Amino acid sequence: MDRILSAELERVLNKLGKPDLLTLLAEQISGSDLNTLLLKLFNEKINQSSPGDLLKRYRENRFVHPAKVDPLQLKQLEMDVLKVALNHGVSPIQLSPVAPLGCASVVGTVDQNKVISALRGTEVVSDATNLLALHISDFIKTNEDKREDFIRFCTTHRHVRAQFFGDTPGMLPHFHLFGMVTSGIDKGSYSFEKQSFWEHIAVYQSIFKTLFGSEIELICSERDGYKDTAGLFSRIIKCGHEHSTNVSISTGEPNKENQYYKGLQFTLKTVIEGKEYYIGDGGFVDWTQKMLGNKKERLLISAIGLDRLI
After folding, report:
1. Euclidean distance between the first and final Cα of the chain, in Å?
2. Residue 63 belongs to a domain
3. Could you tell me the sign of the dihedral formed by the alpha carbons of 259, 262, 264, 267, in that order?
4. pLDDT tens sequence across 133-183
5. What distances in angstroms separate CA 68 from CA 22, 57, 71, 307, one per listed residue?
6. Residue 57 domain-assigned (yes or no)
7. pLDDT tens digit string along 227-285?
8. Considering its fold, how many domains does the chain have in total?
9. 53: in domain
């Protein structure tokens, strides 16, 4: 895909007779000046458009069509999962439809080409947990003298992903997720990791038991990013056994090359009316460490898909 994009870009630049245009725009003008230029460019393009052109763009653009999901059922499900999370001490928050440009790729390992980049220094939200992490980092910066041991937020949000999956079942250009993010400080013995992990699992247990009458299963896999990944993994699992969490746990294949999660990743599986769903995942990330410049910061993220549950 990168080679295809490079070839297309080279073709466009050669057509304009400006092979160094990208370098000039990226390195020699500020972000605000680039925004001014692009605003004028899109305004000129729109001024040349007719209503018929608009309809044509609508018909050809896969990102703008309505979802094939019952909106009343989806809204009810959103309310239900947020209430369950709130009952577990996780505060719901309504996010903006857009995030700062680079929200998904600067601290994560996501290619910017998988995101819809926009004007005014923004991008369309492709992962609400990135934006929740930014909100938490800003909250910590603003309230450093009032820092709590744990900060817990959740949200439901419509996501847009730009990669093309063709007709692959379940792969949609936009979809709803319920996500949670828990922030804390390392105080030794993996205390944050153990508590936050099982808090997230307890929320998902309640969601699926209460709303769907189903149990969840966990598939946990080791990831790089901790000095003692095996120790982290075993202590989290041991903590679950000690507190009788009553969750079926299996071990997935370690993937040391996966740099998105740190230490541990978990996948959520459930069976509803005889149908098996791999419905979500989560794990530890280092985003607040990077944004706040503090290696003691800890962050756990997780999310489940909602469209598929309707």
Report:
1. 33
2. no
3. negative
4. 999 999 999 987 777 789 999 999 999 988 765 565 556 889 999 999 999
5. 38, 20, 9, 9
6. no
7. 999 999 999 999 998 888 889 999 998 877 778 999 999 999 999 999 999 999 999 99
8. 2
9. no
Contacts of 236 (CB under 8 A, 6+ apart): 190, 193, 194, 197, 198, 220, 264
pLDDT of residue 170: 54
CATH of the domain at 255: 3.30.930.10
Are residues 173 and 137 part of one domain?
A: yes
Q: Give the pair of three-digit tokens for residue 260.
A: 């998105």
Range of the domain at 227: 71-309
31-40, 54-63, 158-167 — which one is most confidently predicted on average? 54-63
Q: Are residues 28 and 77 in the same domain?
A: no
Specify whether 27 is located in the same domain as 162. Answer: no
> What's the pTM value of the predicted model, to 2 decimals?
0.90
Q: For residue 261, which of 197, 174, 215, 195 has the smallest C-alpha distance?
A: 197
Report the alpha-carbon distance of residue 124 to residue 110 in Å, rounded: 14
Element (H, E) at 174: strand 174-185
Same-domain check for residues 18 and 139: no
